[in-house]
Design goal:
Layout lengths: L1 H30 L5 E4 L4 E2 L2 E2 L4 H8 L4 E4 L7 E7 L3 E12 L6 E12 L3 E4 L5 H6 L1 H7 L4 E4 L5 E6 L4 E6 L8 E7 L7
Parallel strand pairs: 1-8
Antiparallel strand pairs: 2-3, 4-5, 5-6, 6-7, 7-12, 9-10, 10-11, 11-12
Length: 194
């Protein structure tokens, strides 16, 4: 009887150890999350994702994406969606980059553009966030005086685009909505087709 209890205890202990190890690995993955506060550097990077950074580095900070969509062209860009906080979402566009190396050419996916909605804790170097762009777009225009500003037929600011700095702020009103949805995007200055 004692031998049977020792074997059962041994199997139970092993199962418990395996369960603890599995939970620890899940907890480590859960710790990776999109930062909800930080500074956006126009044309350079957002909290946790710099332009030109490899996808693996971004996912170390952000965790696994909720989904990814790729272009129909082989080797074309891939845009991944990362959920952030209660109401934020980040869209990171990766493009193939061939890095010459002594052994062979390595292809890796690097960040070429980052867009986000929500995340009011992300402020540009000039103090603009999605909340300000949504409710006080004139302040955003003042912060970027050299940007191209596009207005709707009714005089509402719809877009503030600075290709010089690498920042695009879009304000879109959906059907039945009384306030715009704001999407902010950073990209390499001078290189934007959005």
């Amino acid at each position: 009887m004692n031998l049977i209890n020792q074997r059962w205890l041994s199997k139970t202990t092993i199962a418990a150890i395996i369960a603890v190890l599995m939970l620890a690995s899940l907890a480590g993955a859960a710790l990776a999350d999109v930062p909800v506060k930080g500074t956006v550097f126009e044309g350079q990077g957002v909290p946790g994702a710099d332009l030109g950074a490899p996808r693996e580095k971004v996912e170390t900070v952000y965790g696994a994406p909720a989904n990814c969509v790729s272009a129909t062209i082989a080797g074309g860009p891939v845009t991944c969606t990362y959920l952030a906080g209660r109401d934020g979402v980040v869209f990171v566009t990766y493009t193939s980059y061939i890095e010459p190396s002594p052994a062979a050419e390595e292809v890796q996916m690097v960040v070429t553009q980052v867009s986000w909605r929500g995340l009011n804790g992300w402020h540009t170097t000039r103090g603009i966030n999605t909340l300000i762009a949504r409710f006080d777009p004139d302040q955003a225009v003042k912060a970027y005086p050299n940007a191209m500003v596009t207005y709707s037929e009714d005089g509402e600011i719809r877009r503030i685009l600075s290709t010089e700095l690498g920042l695009d702020i879009r304000r879109q009103i959906g059907i039945g909505a009384d306030r715009p949805t704001v999407t902010m995007t950073i990209f390499k200055p001078g290189k934007y087709d959005g």
